[in-house]
Write a structure and sequence with these properties.
Layout lengths: L15 E4 L5 H11 L3 E6 L12 E2 L2 E2 H7 L3 E4 L5 H13 L2 E4 L5 H4 L4 H7 L4 E6 L14 H7 L2 H9 L10 H24 L3 E6 H8 L18 E3 L6 E3 L3 H12 L10 H17 L4 H10 L4 E3 L10 H4 L4 E5 L5 E5 L23 H9 L4
Helix pairs in contact: 1-8, 3-5, 8-9
């Protein structure tokens, strides 16, 4: 059988994106657009991006920084210099999308806010990500993911469920959701521009992105979050295993499929629930090996998961078997591994086509490509 050639066309080929953002939310939106084929140019501003030093650093880049900036080109800009503000306006005039996540009003103070940018390019789509939006009492507040996790109720909810003191989660969820919703908004605005010929300024609040996506937002203040929406970890041969099922459903499946029964059917409800939890835990742990337990869970229609840790996630069969991690070549000629965005098309390509840029590596090339000039 002849293997079908791998498609070379990318959905966003020809789209130009100027990425002025830092940290995670804006750079993630830019990385998504780059994987989809856009020419994304990261503008390096004075002061190192804090994510460069998060975790293990390899050749001046952390894993997080590499993940959200792979596939981009880089130019140097210093907005404190009038010449570079003019350069920014030139680049904005030549691009389709501009992404930024400064506090509201910062770009305006440099003469490079939406009024100035849209004046030089009426077709521009500008994505502005901030913690609380560009209007309202909290518009000027500094906001990183942990701040939004607290304000959106995530940290308080976790404390209510676990009974532990409030603590943040080990995942910049608010940043990720803002980047994802920001990308959707950009694509929608580009579609609208196709019809009207006019660009858009998108005001995206990280807090609103959290609230719009959180499956617990709709619960009233007197409701306790339902256990069915959370996975529960149980003892098992070879180490704990997660089962995603409400305990009532889990008990019913084990009773129906394997004859697991109440040792004391007439016990009070609270005692019965406690005893049932112990019976189920004993049933899981009594299997001769982990594979036998997994087979039983699957035969009962129960979803399970191994508890993986950062060091072994990328080697898991469900990851490695789909080429989720790809090697890219940085500007220094060295290879770097990054996760590709999860977009698989029937007849189009996606994924990073270059590595993580050195600051200013492509300044002259971008100016020539986009503005037909060099400075």
């Amino acid at each position: 059988m002849t293997q079908r050639p791998r498609p070379q066309t990318r959905p966003l080929d020809g789209l130009r994106v100027l990425d002025l953002s830092r940290a995670v939310s804006g750079p993630l939106a830019g990385r998504i657009l780059a994987d989809l084929g856009a020419d994304v140019v990261r503008a390096e501003l004075p002061g190192a991006d804090v994510t460069q030093a998060f975790g293990k650093v390899t050749r001046g880049r952390s894993g997080l920084y590499s993940h959200v900036n792979a596939g981009k080109r880089s130019v140097l800009l210093d907005l404190h210099r009038p010449g570079d503000v003019a350069r920014l306006l030139d680049l904005a005039a030549a691009c389709d999308v501009l992404v930024e996540n400064f506090r509201p009003g910062v770009l305006d103070r440099f003469g490079a806010g939406w009024p100035a940018l849209s004046a030089v390019n009426p077709r521009l789509v500008m994505l502005s990500i901030s913690g609380f939006g560009r209007e309202g009492d909290d518009a000027g507040r500094a906001a990183y993911a942990p701040v939004i996790h607290a304000e959106a109720g995530l940290i308080g909810r976790q404390a209510d469920i676990t009974g532990e003191p409030p603590a943040d989660i080990a995942f910049a969820l608010a940043d990720a959701l803002a980047g994802l919703h920001g990308t959707i908004a950009v694509l929608a605005a580009l579609r609208l521009r196709d019809r009207t010929g006019t660009g858009q300024h998108i005001d995206l609040s990280m807090l609103e992105a959290m609230l719009a996506t959180d499956d617990y937002t709709h619960y009233s203040i007197d409701e306790h979050p339902v256990r069915s929406a959370r996975g529960e970890v149980w003892p098992a041969p070879g180490g704990p295993i997660l089962i995603s099922a409400d305990r009532r459903y889990l008990w019913r499946q084990l009773k129906t499929c394997f004859g697991v029964a109440d040792p004391d059917p007439d016990a009070p409800l609270e005692d019965k629930l406690r005893v049932r939890a112990g019976v189920m835990a004993d049933w899981f742990a009594a299997h001769p090996d982990r594979d036998a337990l997994k087979r039983d869970l699957e035969s009962a229609g129960l979803a399970w998961a191994d508890i993986r840790h950062a060091g072994d996630v990328l080697a898991a069969p469900s990851v490695a078997g789909r080429d989720t991690v790809v090697e890219v070549t940085d500007g220094d000629g060295e290879k770097r591994s990054v996760a590709r965005m999860p977009y698989r098309f029937s007849d189009a390509a996606s994924g990073p086509d270059r590595g993580v840029p050195e600051p200013g590596e492509h300044t002259d090339a971008v100016l020539l490509d986009w503005t037909r000039r060099t400075d």
